[in-house]
Predict the 3D structure of the following.
Amino acid sequence: MPPKESAPLLSKAKKGKRSTPPADEPAESTPLLSGASETPNYDGQRNTAGRDRVESIRTRLSEALSGSSKSSRRWPSFIAMGILGLFIIAIIVLAFILPQAVQEYTQQAAVLEPTSLSLDSITTDGIRARVQANFRLDASRVTNQHVRRMGRAATFVARQIESEKTKIDVSLPDYKNIVIGSAVIPPLLVNLRDGDVTQFDFVADINPGSLDGIRMIANEWLEGRLEWLRLKGDADVNLKSGILPLGMHTVSESLVFEANKIPAIPQYNISRFNVKDGPINGSMLVDASLSTINEYPVELDIPELSFEILVSGCADSDPLIVVAEAATSKVHVEPHSDVAADVNAVIRGLPDSLTRACPNSKASPLDVLLRQYMHGEPATFFVRGSSKTDNNTPKWITDILSSLTLAVPFPGRTLDGLIRNFLLTDVHFTLPNPLADPEGPDANPKVSGNVKVIAGLPSEMNFGLNVTNMRASADVFYKHKKMGELNLREWQRANSTKVECRRDEEPTLEIESRVIDAPLNITDTDVFSSVLQALLFGTEVIELSVNALVDVKIKTSLGGIIIKEIPAEGKIPVKPLPKGALSSIDPQVGSVKVLDTSVDSVTIQAVVNITNPTPYTAHVPFVNVHVLKNGSIIGDATIENVDIAQGLNTDLIVTAKWNPSMGGTKGRKIGRDLMSQYISGWNTSITVKAHPESIPGQREISEALSQFDVSFAAPRLDLPGDTPEEKSHFVRDATFHFFSSTATFTLISPLEHNTLYLDYINATAFYNHTEPVGYILYDLPIAAPPGTSHTPRLPVDWSFGSIGYDALVEAIGGELKLDAYADVDVRLGNWKESLWYHSKGIGASVKL
């Protein structure tokens, strides 16, 4: 607690700790400047401290510039009014040679009402201020009636008291009596009778004292550590009352200011803010206009002042980083009126210390600053007076301002709405790699496509910029439900085009990029199944919603800048498959090679041509599906490392395994009938369906796919022949030898590398579909090698007396169209199966 002083100016302070003035010390009840009040923000709305949102980071820089300069200019007026109060109290007390009653009377009755304080001029040593104020003694403020009577009587007799020209030194008792300033007060005449008003109107020379003391107090005030402030005035005063000289007296008086009575930095509005490229390559210019309201009876002219704008480094111990230099215009301040000031700043490149990643971190100080700002967190700028000022600015002002650093916490603002559209078109899908690390990006399906982003540009940004790269992480939604996550975390090349709009609209920036293999992680298989259902069976365009955080690399005249995690919303339009598209896949089988056989199965590799009816393309590293007939599994098929383009896709390698035993006894019967129908050239169909292990490592996607099945015509074999009917028949033609009762057949095998064996044949030939011609029963193996082959002569048991036999006799030497029905035991490697064969219109030559 500071020592007690005598003669407070207006009122007594309450007792308490340091956060309140000391006991018996005064507190200023009518301060010259009050705390900050609400003022309009950049957009014209009302704001309060801590909640104001401005339009850009540079707006904050300009605010900081104005704030520091204003605060420093309040100190001379603040000190001047305090000195005046101290001096008047001293005159009255000294006039009566400090009797206790008169001292108490003057302490309680003195009322000082400042009416105007104007800056007459700025000198090389300080300022010359014009002070206008009213002073009176109000006896009603004195609580003790005896003191009130004695005071009235004494001041009635003295009537007036006059001082000669006096110099007052103002010091800080609580800071080792550092002298922070001095003032020269001209002769003053004070009326002492109760109620008489003395009007002061004089010019005082005020000079700053120790810069260290001023800096100490200013920093404590700016940092919020100044709880109260006591000023002490020391002067040698020569007094007289009328013609009666009272001699020279040394007086020391003190005055206490509470923290909440000390003037605060005013709120202000930014009425103009523009950023453009500078005339020198690698620079930018900021042009702003600030306005505020002077609520006080203060008039002054503020000269041009220069400032530095700084930000924090990687650590608190690192020096601050200078990012810009700013200067204010000359400003004339009138009492109780609006005040406007122009601010111009120049940014000369971005220092390496600002953009270089911090130790043990991937973020630079610029990244941290931008991230705080864009996420609505307070970001801190620092404003410091520049030591480089105009020659017209007195050095003492430069020394004070350059010794002060003002921390400006600035409320962040989210960038919602900056990116107005996020569109992904020309989509290409890549299924997961089965050999990939389950935790790696290749274990997820991937998406490629063209990204188009529409971003709004504030009208104040009048400088050139170009987006060179972009990346993003996006959540994908279908009907407001999250389906998965799209990871575009690898930098993709991009280019941008500025689009000018009408005067009442902001310009936009169109950013385009080609995204290659962005992993898509499906997080909800039910939602994914809904998308597949709409894709396969729907008729309207499917809209997937995207919520993304976008990073962009921007090239400006200052160099390259990375802006991270800009929120964006957009759409991924997905067209459904055309009606009947699944039936138009139309698979065609070319060459077939047997890879393996077992008792129950045959594994083959076939070259297949298919038609992709969708507008999408895909890369398939590995997919395995079940092949079904009438609900029973009869085998599976695998496709590996295949690119599916739009339209016809040729020479695709497909590995299939024929294994009806997978469907049990029922499956074996269904498999025999399907194979028999197929080799007979019938129109057959099969169903393809995914299973939980269709895509290794992607059970969720596989299960979602397994909820759907696709049926299409079984792929036809591409056998030699002139007509589609011929190409579908394994038995191409026959030759009957009448006298030897034998027949030979021409066989066309679809296998290019393997021999098929017919171990048993029980066949009947029909004429006109129903009339038997003859019967063949043969139980010796017949080999059907690749390509075209002929059977040995097979014995025929003619159906004598039948219409078919008569037709055969009549056709000797010519040809006859016959139908055939046979039961055949087929063997391929280790696999054996009993099939039936039914064919119509086989051309048979009849020879003797």
About this structure: Confidence is low (pLDDT under 50) at residues 1-74. The longest helix spans residues 57-95. The chain has five domains: 11-35+63-261, 269-410, 419-574, 582-717, 724-847. The longest strand covers residues 481-499.
